[in-house]
Structure formats: structure tokens, C-alpha cells
Amino acid sequence: MSPEYLEGYTTLLAEVSDTGRLPRRAELDALRELGEQAAESGHGLRELVGLFLGETRRVWGTLPGVARAAGAAERARTGDAVLGAVDAAIAAFGEGHERAQRLAVRQEEAARREFVDDLLYGRSDLGRLAERAERFGLRLAHEHAVAVAEGDEPFDDIHPVARRVERELLGRFGDRDVLITTKEGRLVCVGASRERTVLDAFATYARWPDVGRPGARRVAIGRVHSGAGGVVHSYEEALGALELAEQLELDEPVLRAADLLVFPVLLRDRAAMADLVRTVLGPLTQSRGGAGPLLETIGALAASGYVNAEAARRLKVSVRTLSYRLERIKFLTGYDPADGLQRFTLETAAMGARLLGWPDKPL
Predict the structure, then answer these.
(1) Less crowded by CB within 10 Å, the N or C end of the chain?
(2) Domain shared by 207 and 288, yes or no
(3) Boundaries of each CdaR GGDEF-like domain copy (predicted)?
(4) Per-residue pLDDT at 114
(5) Between 102 and 2, where is the model more confident?
């Protein structure tokens, strides 16, 4: 290691041993600057402390005050003054080293956050984005998919669940073509499609609770796409899946955008969907309890695979009450849930009602 980091150190020890003075502020500031330079050059603090201690040992016997000390008391005073100077010098050098490291960490975090924003929003030149991605372990020429986890509380980079998920995933899969980050209070994972188990593992780890903190409530996984634009597309699909799950009150903890492709199709013509809801389900508003309970019954029946006992359990009503509700649905709408085609119409209209917020919102 270059001796330039010891510049002025031997002179300082010699003067302290000779006069017993304390290190001056200018001397300590110079050592702090040397510490910053050493950190920027990539030298670790441990080896630098070893360098200072080794130099102290080498020159100890030649220091003026140590050499001329006559008695034990004088040697003790001189040695105490020199060791105090050694302590102050190493502390100042270490402070400069740590300051440079903190600055480097903040700069790295800022660069990473800027990259994540550009990656997920597609706001940067794709060629330049691909070059920056290499620095963070992604090769955008490959196909990737994005998973997004949301919980009852927002996730940030220091959240215990976020840190545990990153530790588990990187420990299992390494840091190539896997990026863990947070965005708008959600936990996000970008993974290469060839490692299909990465996003499945992410969904599992994200939903595990941490000490005193709940895990993610729901995870959505976008489809696989290629290139930087594909990452944006997959991310938007995952966000769309989370939004649909909220609107439709889906119970599944893990959603895949590929399984929900029918819903964007249904909503592509909102006017036609609104007309379907009004025509098929509008008469349910004539029921004594309003359309809500009967609409909920249609959803529970579909979710249970049209097994009446299971649907009743989900609704927390008796099978007899369920049967009564089904008769009311058939009477009011003219559609029979027992008929295959009419059942599909009821299900589609019920899904459309949830997506449009009916009956709480007028159509």
C-alpha cells in the first residue's frame, strides 16, 4: 500500500512525544482527507489501520520523547501522549474513510433508484437503459417477468420483509438477472424468464410474516416479455392484476396476469358492459334487501363451482337460504343459474358489475 496515506503521521508522533501537545485541528483534517482518498481508491479500513499501527511500531523507539525518557513515570507520560495521538489520528482517518463510503452508498442508492424508475416507467433510451442494467445485474436482451407484492402497510427498501426477501432470493438464485426493489409502497421483483422459479419463490417469501410485521397480502405476476419495454409491460400487467383483484374482491393470494386476460377484454367496451349489467342485473334492485346480497350470491356460487353447500358456507347462510336467493335471482332476472348459457351471462354481468362499481355507482 502506498505510504502517501502516512503523510505527516510520523512527524506528528515525533512532535507529540517531544512536547506532549495534542494533535492540531489542521492535522486531523488532513488525515480525514487522506481517509477519503483511501476509500475512493478502494482500500479497506482494516488494512489502513494496520498500516498506521505498523508505522507506529516501527518508529516508536526513534521518537525523541520516548528515546530520552529517563524514568518509568516519564516514559509512561510520553507513551500515553503518543498513544493518544495515535488514537486521534486513526479516528480522524477512519472518519474520513467512512464519510467517503457513506457518500458512495448514497450515490449508488440514488443511481439505483433512478434506474428502477426509468426501467419500470420506460422513460430512458432503451440502448442506454440496457447498458445501465448490466451494472445492476440485469441483461435486458433476455426475457423477463415482473412480480409485485402489496401489503397492509407500505414497503420500503429497509422494511424487514423487503430485506428478508432480497436476502433469501439472492442467497438462492444469486444476483444475475434478479432485481429486488420497492416502488410506491409495493415490493417488486424483476426476474429472467429462464428462472421461472424466481418469481414463485418471491411470491412465497413476500407473503411470509417477519418478526412483528405482516407479510404481503397479495402478489401479482405479469407475463414474460423481452427487452426493456417488456419489463415495463410486465410491470403494468402485474399492477393491473392487483387492481382487478381489489375490484373483484378475489381471494387468491397469488395472481397471474395471464389468468386474468378476459377482464381487459370485458372492459374494452364499457358502454356495452354497462348495458349488459343494467339489462341482466338491473331487476335485482327490486329485491327487498337490494341488489347487493343477490349479486354476492352469484359470485359465491361461481367461486364454489356451483356447489350449493360450499356457496352457502362462503356466504355464511343456510343451504335453504341460498336456494331461496337462487329462486329470487331466476324470478327477477329471468336467467336461471342452473342453465349453462344463462349461468355464463349472469357470471359475466356480475363481474362487470364489480368492475364498474355497480350498484354503488350509477351506470
Answers:
(1) N
(2) no
(3) 122-244
(4) 84
(5) 102
Element (H, E) at 109: helix 72-121
pLDDT of residue 281: 92
Same domain membership, residue 136 and residue 240: yes
In a domain, 76, yes or no: yes
- Shared domain for 244 and 300, answered yes or no, is no
Q: What is the residue-wise DSSP string for 145-203?
A: EEEEEE-SS---TT-HHHHHHHHHHHHHH-SSSEEEEEETTEEEEEEETT-HHHHHHHH
End-to-end CA, the chain? 76
- The residues that bridge with 221 in the sheet, in sequence order, are 147, 256
The three grid cell numbers given for residue 202, joined into one nine-digit string: 418471491
Cell 414497503 sits on residue: 155
What domain range is 336 assigned to? Answer: 264-356
343 shares a domain with 248: no
Taking a C-beta distance cutoff of 8 angstroms, is the pair 161, 210 a contact? yes
> Are both 221 and 318 inside the same structural domain?
no
Domain count for the chain: 3
Per-residue pLDDT of 24-70, as tens digits, reads 999 999 999 999 998 888 888 888 899 999 999 998 988 888 778 77
* Residues contacting 354, CB < 8 A, separation 6+: 247, 248, 249, 299
pLDDT confidence of residue 211: 66
pLDDT at 137 over 80: no
Q: What is the pTM of this model?
A: 0.64
pLDDT tens, position by position, 11-36? 999 999 889 899 999 999 999 999 99
**Residue 116 counted as domain residue:** no
The residue behind cell 409491460 is: 233
Q: Is residue 191 one of the residues assigned to a domain?
A: yes
136 with 223, same domain: the answer is yes
Contact 154, 202 (CB under 8 A): no
Shared domain for 55 and 149, answered yes or no, is no
Does residue 277 share a domain with residue 245?
A: no
**What are 70-124's pLDDT values in tens digits?**
778 888 888 889 999 999 999 999 999 998 888 877 777 777 888 888 888 876 6
Q: Calculate helix-pair angle for 340-356, 227-248, nearest 10 degrees.
A: 100
Which DSSP string do the residues of 233-257 spell out, in sequence order? HHHHHHHHHHHHHHHHT---SEEEG
Predicted local distance difference test score (pLDDT) of residue 196 = 66
